[in-house]
Amino acid sequence: QVQLVESGGGLVQPGGSLRLSCAASGSENSFALMAWYRQAPGKQREKVALLTTIGSTLYGDSVKGRFTISRNQNTVYLQMNSLKPGDTAAYYCNARNGRREYWGQGTQVIVST
Asked: N or C: which end of the chain has fewer CB within 10 A?
């Protein structure tokens, strides 16, 4: 069993920054890929950023140049800068090893004045 626990969400003004964290624990001690997704009300879940163990990254078009994904062992981070109201969503951590895939419970990010 694997648990992913996100933290760092909250309310921030447009143009501000937040740093999300996701700590993985449990029966697996490494993951081939860790990623962040988000889901806004009434919209489908979308990929925000992913990071492989060899350091390859992939970002969604809407966050390129503003968000940075990083990893320290089994904790993955998402540094979010220049936040916009359109970034408002629940952010979910994802970890994968082959066919095994795990999700966190989500952390809410609200970008508003």
From this structure: C
